[in-house]
Amino acid sequence: MDERIARLIKLWQKRNILGFYTEDKEGAIDLILEMIPQEASIGISGSVTLDQLGIVKILEERGNKVFNQYKAGINKEEALALRKKGVDADFYLASANAISEKGQLVFFSAYGTRIAGISYAKRLIVVCGINKITSNLKEAIKRAREYATPLNCKRLNWNSACVKEGRCRERICVFPNYKRMCCQILIVEAEMEPERIKVILVGEKLGF
Ligand code: SF4
Known about the structure:
The chain is of the alpha/beta class and about 210 residues long. It is built from seven helices and ten strands. The strands form two sheets. The chain has a six-stranded parallel β-sheet, sandwiched between helices.
């Protein structure tokens, strides 16, 4: 573990956030399976990082109840109901769009259920590749909006103003001309309840 990560994990202790480091995806999967009991229910937020881990399938096969709004064959109402149940589950799994070296976690959201899950879940596990660490909060927000979100809009084929040129065009990205993904922003600076938030940093590039 390099010095920067060791420092970040120490800073999180002062913010009531538990930080973990693992070198690779397999280590992250092992940590998640240790942290979540087999009988626990789980809500998930949409995340390339979680997809790369394949963690939803692993948890489902282990017997966990996962409120998976992305499962095939469900309609919009069913997906929304699963999103809401996910917020109230025993655990919520997400990845941040960016993390500052001071320890702030930045999350962008379109519908806000992800923000609700992160803020409200009984237990939250955030998994992040070290590629998402930035020097400060300003850079973290910039990364989330100018790098991660245009890639997410493209991946999901949204009609957002950034899709065509691959860069944020926030001023014109409004309805009805565009479907804006950046509707809500959450910055987690600290946590009231000890052990509610765990962050697993992974020493490889994950997600956008
Ligand atoms: S504000 Fe609009 S254009 Fe900018 S990143 Fe978000 S969705 Fe894309």
